Amino acid sequence: MSRRHLTLDLRSRAGLFAHLGAMERAGVPIDRALASLDLGAHHEAAVKRLRQMVGGGRDLATSGQLSGVFTPLESGLVRAAQEAGALAHIYEQLAQRYDEQARYAAELKSRLLLPAGVLLLALAVKPLPALVGGSLSGAGYLAAVLMPILWLSALLFGARALWRRWQQRRTDQPGPLDDLLLALPVLGSLQRRADVRNFCDSLGLLLEAGMPVLDALPRACSAVSGARLRRDFANLAPRVAAGQSLVRAFDGLSFHGKAMLIGVLNTGEATGRPGEALLRFARLQAQQLAASQQMLASWAPRLFYLAVAGWMAYGLLTGGGFFPALPAELAGR
């Protein structure tokens, strides 16, 4: 059902969780907190379904996903926080993450305006000599300018649609879309690191709430969006059940930041506070992720600008811009 719902944008998600966090800190019941929630006209139908489901007795995590307000990942995080009694913590974490992502996205868009303008100018100028020389009609000129723009727009729209579809899906078996997204340079690495952070954050909350580790591990897996990494983390519970410590169980897996996690978790197990150690590691991962996202927002426009400049230079060098070709009658002499 949730596939037909509009996906909330980053600003709306930041506002949603900031509101829920403030209401939770103030001790306001969830039904009253939802009654004052306003995400705009586009999402009012989804918020209304959420209110109805919570009013009908469903828990917030399930209601959020069924109504289309939460993604499966958000639902898993909220469910873990419900069981740990730490809803305010996860609300505030999500609000901060989405606020940062929205800020980076806005910064990225503003920095891309100049190279995008240069690209549009290049597309408009490149076929002009052919138009002036009479070898290209007015309709042909428009097609030469508009077709690349349409292709680029379709590519961006398709990438955005794939990302939203991946956010809304939930399966235990990795698919081609999972492998494609994780294989993307930079973005794939960021997604894997975010999943590790979410898993450790959820597991730490559950352990700090006093939940036995064998009960907490499967619940923390629901906070992982990638099916491949979620399947790997699902192997932790059988290893712990077989008598391995949590450190040894993690040591048998391969993921980004494992060495740091093993070091932090060794200290945590030695002091009898593995949950606290996992939360500390999750905070460190969150800081590193924020720094990487800031770097991406700074460098992506520059790389795009260099690509556009390189394409323009190539067109000038190969299209006769610097070295015009001689007329045929002169070239034959």
From TrEMBL:
GO cellular component: plasma membrane
Record bears the keyword ATP-binding: no
Keywords: Cell membrane, Membrane, Transmembrane, Transmembrane helix
Keyword Cell membrane: yes
Primary location group: membrane
Protein origin, superkingdom: Bacteria
Compartments, as annotated in UniProt: Cell membrane
Transmembrane regions: 112-132, 138-163, 303-326
Domain Type II secretion system protein GspF positions: 18-125, 199-317
UniProt record similarity statement: Belongs to the GSP F family.
PANTHER family: GENERAL SECRETION PATHWAY PROTEIN, TYPE II SECRETION SYSTEM PROTEIN F-RELATED
Record-given protein name: General secretion pathway protein F/type IV pilus assembly protein PilC
Organism the protein comes from: Ectopseudomonas toyotomiensis
Taxonomic lineage of the native organism: Bacteria, Pseudomonadati, Pseudomonadota, Gammaproteobacteria, Pseudomonadales
